[in-house]
Amino acid sequence: MGTAILYGVSSIFILAIVSSLIFSILLRFSSLNESSLKYVVMAISFLSIFMGGFISGGKGKKQGWLLGGGTGLLYTSIVFLFQYLGHDHLFSLKEWIYYACFILTSMMGGILGVNVSGGKKAP
Length: 123
Known about the structure:
The chain is an all-alpha fold. It has helices at 2-29, 38-60, 64-87, 93-116.
C-alpha cells in the first residue's frame, strides 16, 4: 500500500517537473506571460494529481479511494512542509480549498485506477 502511494506521489512530481519545464520554455521564448497561463497551469495541476491517484490505485489494486486519498494527502503534506519550512509561509484559505480539491481529485483517480486495472472483485 505504501509503495503504491509512493509511485503516485513520484508520478505527480515527475509530471510537475516536466510541465514546469515546458511552461518555462514557453514563457521564455514566446510573448506569453504568467497570467495568460493561469488556468492552463491549474488544469495541468489537477490532471497530474488525478494521474498520481490513478497510478497509485492501479498499483494497489484495491481500496482506490484510500490509496488516492493517501497520495493526495502525502503530496499536500510535502508541499505544505516545503512552503512552511522553506518560505516561512502558511497556506491561505484559498490554498486550503485548492488542496482539499486536489485530495478529492486524487481519490477519484485512485478509484478509477483500481477499476481500470482490474482490482479485486467483491464476491
